Amino acid sequence: MSFRSVGRILPTKGFLIRLRERAALLQMGVEALKMKRDQLIRESQELLKQLHARKDIDKKLEEAFSMVKMAYAVAGPQEMRKAALLATPLRIEVRTKSVVGVETPEITTSEFKLAVSPSLNSAVMAAAAKLSEAIREMMPLVNAEARFERIAEALAQTMRKVNALEKIVIPDYTAAIKYVEELLEEEDLEEFLTIKKYRQIKRGE
Question: In the chain, which ranges are continuous DSSP H helix?
C-alpha cells in the first residue's frame, strides 16, 4: 500500500517513529498557518473598511474632471498648458511592510500642488484646487487597494495550504501510521506464535 503524501512505506519501528514525528510537525505547521490566516483576515477586514471610501473618491474625481473640462472650455488650451507648467509633479515612493511574513506595498507621496497663480483664469484655479484635493484623498485609497490585493493573494495561498494539509497530507500520514502499526503488530504476533511453537516443540523433545 502506498500513500501519495508519505511516499514509500517501511514496516519498521524506526520508520514509524519518523512518521509520528513528521505528523506532529505537520500539525504544528497547520496551527501556525491558521494563525497566519486569521491575522490576514483581520488585516483584510480593516482594509475593506478603507475601501468603502471608493464611491466618494470616484465622485470627487468625476466632479474635478468636470471642472477641468469646463475650465478648458472657458480659458482655452493655452491657459491650461500654462497651468500644467506651474504644477508640482507628484512623486511616489513605494516601500514594503511585512504583515505576518507577507510583504505588502506601502505608498507615500510628496506634496502635490497644481497651479495656483493670480495670473491664471479663475476657472482654471478652481479646477486645479478641486483636482488637487481629489488626488490627495485618492492616494490613501490607492495604498489600501495595493495592500489589500497582496494580502488577499497571500490569504488565498494560505487557505489552500491549510486545506491541503488538513484534507490530504495529515490524513495520509495518520493512515500510514495506522497501517505501519498494524503491520508491526502482525509481525510481533507472528514472532510470538513462532517462539511459542518452538518452545512447545522443544518441550516435546
Answer: 13-51, 54-75, 77-86, 122-164, 170-204
